[in-house]
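The material for today's practical consists of a large collection of protein records. Backbone structure tokens are a discrete shorthand for how the chain folds in space. An example says more than a description, so a record of this kind follows:
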Amino acid sequence: MILVYLSVSFLSLYMVKNIDTATSEFHGLGVSGILPALLYAIFNTALPEEIFFRGFILKRIPSKFGFYAANLIQSVLFGLLHGTMFFSIAGMIKAMIIIVLTGAIAFCMGYVNEKKAGGSIIPSWCLHVLSNAFASFVALFSIL
């Protein structure tokens, strides 16, 4: 799953390589930017998003709609959050691809959290940190 997640991350980064993203502020900083980039990846993006999407939304909706519908709802919202900002700057097709890719990953993370990890958001937080750190390292070392 980690390899799939990193592959999706790389594909998403490649599609928006000439567009300002959340990690653009780290572009070209190299080793000096590692600590700020990691702190940003861990606490500024991954943790709040995991608390909101998998920790709040996914915990509240299943009582009304069941787990799979709730997981679908949180994953669609997660995908929309990550893709809609790119509609005007990357175009509809790239934005839709980002929505689908991030939404699919969110669905998998919701499933793992609830069905394999007893409801803990720690597995998805770790994957999310890994993805965000990967994106930061791509920017830090100007890989794309």
